[in-house]
Amino acid sequence: MTEKKKILLIDDDPDFVEAVRVIIASGGYDVRVAYDGAEGLEAVAQEKPDLIILDVMMPVMNGHEACAKLKANPETAKIPIILLTAVADRVTTSTYTHRDMLESEAEDYMPKPVEPAELLGLVQQWLK
After folding, report:
1. In 10 A of CB 78, how many CB atoms?
2. Which domains does the chain have, with CATH numbers?
């Protein structure tokens, strides 16, 4: 039996984390969780995930900062990162923009709220 792929979900909203954790676990993945960017960086070092799902708007360290640090580190640079964000709905009230998403070194991004099938499809695509 092959070992389950490990996914690290980093988001500061506990309800959203639980919903997304259930969606991803239903695809047969081992899901680990962190609740802000700094905690996420520690979890990446400990867990060595195969893929990271990273929220953008978080306290302590936002997703763009965490992504930049992960991509700058040779040990974590190759881990695919999917940014999840509600920025699409909040461009006028947020300091984040669509350009930030495109300029990020993340492999992909998906707007919140997520569609379960789309999220699982994106995860499968990046773990091939």
Report:
1. 8
2. 6-127 (3.40.50.2300)
